[in-house]
Amino acid sequence: MEVDESVEEEPVPSPVQPPMSRDRVPLQKSSVCSRSYFMVVMVFFHVYIINVIALLFYVHYSNGSSRKEFASSTQHQHRSFDRPVSHERFSRTMHLPRIEGIRVGHVQKVSLVPNKVHEMRTLSLKPLLFEIPGFLTDEECRVVIQLAQLKGLMESQVMVPEGQEELTEQLNLSPEEIFNLLDLNQDNQLQPQEILTHSRVRDGIWLTPENLREIYAGLHADSDGNGLLSLEEFRALSGDAFQSFLKRRGLKRSQLVRNSRHTWLYQGQGTHHVLQDLRKRVTLLTRLPSELVELSEPLQVVRYEQGGHYHGHHDSGPVYPETTCTHTRLATNSTSPFETSCRYITALFYLNSVEGGGETTFPVADNRTYEELSLIQNDVDLLDTRKNCDKGNLRVKPTKGTAVFWYNYLSDGQGWVGEQDEYSLHGGCVVTRGTKWVANNWINVDPDYQRQARYQELVSQQQQEAPGEPSKSSSSQHIDHHVEL
Amino acid sequence: MEVDESVEEEPVPSPVQPPMSRDRVPLQKSSVCSRSYFMVVMVFFHVYIINVIALLFYVHYSNGSSRKEFASSTQHQHRSFDRPVSHERFSRTMHLPRIEGIRVGHVQKVSLVPNKVHEMRTLSLKPLLFEIPGFLTDEECRVVIQLAQLKGLMESQVMVPEGQEELTEQLNLSPEEIFNLLDLNQDNQLQPQEILTHSRVRDGIWLTPENLREIYAGLHADSDGNGLLSLEEFRALSGDAFQSFLKRRGLKRSQLVRNSRHTWLYQGQGTHHVLQDLRKRVTLLTRLPSELVELSEPLQVVRYEQGGHYHGHHDSGPVYPETTCTHTRLATNSTSPFETSCRYITALFYLNSVEGGGETTFPVADNRTYEELSLIQNDVDLLDTRKNCDKGNLRVKPTKGTAVFWYNYLSDGQGWVGEQDEYSLHGGCVVTRGTKWVANNWINVDPDYQRQARYQELVSQQQQEAPGEPSKSSSSQHIDHHVEL
């Protein structure tokens, strides 16, 4: 709209003028041969030529912009990212289309590769989750697995997490304050659920209700034996008492939040064409601007051996006013103890069909309500993918070549990323037989539009300075942050 | 896009020509005074003037259309309804925006009247349901009630429904076929739920599990006394046996599906300004094309006395390929035994605050699944708004001036009306104290785009023939169909 208005203010030749000059012609018939009259005619002539050319440019210009508008808003194609003159505030020119889920079981046809139509089925609305069989060919699955093996995989989680006390120390909280934060229902006692719910957030050891009873007994923590911790009982424990106890007793990999190996594969220019194709296909699938997809994390390839699992988790955390995003942090120069990966979308590809187990579970998909505490009830922990996968609301069977993708954040109602979608909670069920290979593409978007815009501007400036290595410069940043995931 | 392309094919003056004619000027300097040369110059001159005018028109035209496109797609304003030359197939030029619910509890600001901002809260996503406090002023509520009283209200449902056997007769079904249709779980026996579920659809008497036991006993229908009807037992009953039994025993108004009185108020030109304002406000609220809102049913005003209720129901039925819509039926000349009102949106206004009861209940709102049979379990019938309003998922308290609105149909994924949203099931809880006044605005849209387009074309042709009475001609059609609702 702004473009149209500003152009209208330019001097546009009035269509009233020409008839006036035509009227004068017969009146001055006698002096038609004079040089001055010829000059006047030629001046008019040139003015009109210039006007015609100016109008042609204007038509071309306004035409182009309206076409762009139309394409991006009605056909959900990519809108180019306009950079305004001011470097302080970016106007909201980028919109993120969300695919309509309609209802669970709805199937829509999508065109992702030439000469083939894929079917995309809605699996749930909370989170907005889709399944696309045959997204990758068998050959492509094979290539991705081999590229990952060539690069080498590392443990997804180290056995003994380090630095787990950092945040608490940084925040400088007293035991009373921690007790209060843990005491979600504010009854001045810590129920086992309250301990377990907290424990998953903070460190990499997975506590079960049985573990907790064991720990209470071993540490004599629950002196009155009622299964609850009072403030006095809690104060008697050191900050890492539970973890230390378990570590002393010896930890198995199956007791971690995550038991798998993974690696990262770049997808930019110069990489294997299957990886580049995959990224293009994800862009078509999600209908997001290609810049966003290209500036996102590399492809993560994960291998779960028999017995491997990944307990229930969110791929990206909630966003509070002070939360920063990993991918835009460098561009915004902000320091905050709260940082999350801001993965707007997760696209998960099954690279093989698993012989037994290994489903992706969405324990609270399409639940009417979401309450963190009610995830653990009567010793049944819905987040435990080694025990309770069968009790969740939705499970996706790993089938070679199938892709699923979902939104980890809601819309903000204005075409941008909003709050975290808590229902996007998911996990990898234990592999009971065989090996499970999957790959993840995350699309990172900062819920703060200004930060995302500033980040993209910075990257594009860097790319202009060093045009030879556009893909490396954008994704090398990611590997530092995500190598430990 | 079509417009742009066709215009580009028109002859556009080439900017190369003028320099050529300029080059010739110095070469023919001597003959500059000749009349023929003057004629040539003037012809060029006029051709350019015509071109400039043509270009100005084109700029104006393409400008206008791009602005329209932009407004309707990004700001959700109304798109004009283009009528193509062909009267057979209408191209999809009309799109119906759906308001984003984001999540339950999300609040968005909406501008509906000058100098006031309303807050619209998402109450549920299934159905997509919003609440807007203060949508009507106290004065407006008073006017609507008085206009309804002036016009006079009639019983919403007659005591003894007539013509209830029509459909069955028309379809010419044998008792075996009916038995099979009723036997939803195909166990060759009719459970009480199966009888009750069917009964609500077919006629106006509300059967409760207790009624059914009474009827079985009175008619000796369940000869083996197991609470189930076998095919033999079912065959022994006549088609209207249950209803006849209840009628013989005497019916109270509280035993009907609906116990209220109502009337219809036109909202077109010449009617009270409050009614016209209300319609405009509904257009702004729903962001639908104003033509659609104007061609919809008149305002229905309903009064529930103490003890009044409306059991759980859908405002509009499912749409199968052979289903016709009441409002487009005349335009499409189709005859089908399956007809529904095709109410895309229900906007419900509370005209007073009820002293006790009278909530609007959405028993399955945001449920994970919808199963008709599981609505009746262990003698608890979630559709019964006299008994079980407290057991439903969501209740809206009637507060004077508050509006709620919801979508009775899903999107089809292409900007038009899709399948029925079964979760839009709702009812009016029994009024325990005082009187309840509400008004309903339904927005009728045919899920068949072609039929809706043909209907709108027909109405606009009629309006052109008789421009004096545009509002009457469109809504007089409705009163015939909906007087009995």
Automatic annotation (TrEMBL), chains A, B:
Residues 458-477 have a biased composition (Polar residues). Residues 1-11 have a biased composition (Acidic residues). SMART domains: P4Hc (SM00702). Gene3D superfamilies: EF-hand, q2cbj1_9rhob like domain. Residues 295-445 form the Fe2OG dioxygenase domain. Its cofactor is L-ascorbate. Keywords: Calcium, Dioxygenase, Iron, Membrane, Metal-binding, Oxidoreductase, Transmembrane, Transmembrane helix, Vitamin C. The chain crosses the membrane at residues 37-59. GO terms for molecular function: dioxygenase activity; L-ascorbic acid binding; metal ion binding. PANTHER family: PROLYL 4-HYDROXYLASE ALPHA SUBUNIT, TRANSMEMBRANE PROLYL 4-HYDROXYLASE. This is Fe2OG dioxygenase domain-containing protein. It comes from Coilia grayii (Gray's grenadier anchovy). The lineage of its organism: Eukaryota, Metazoa, Chordata, Craniata, Vertebrata.
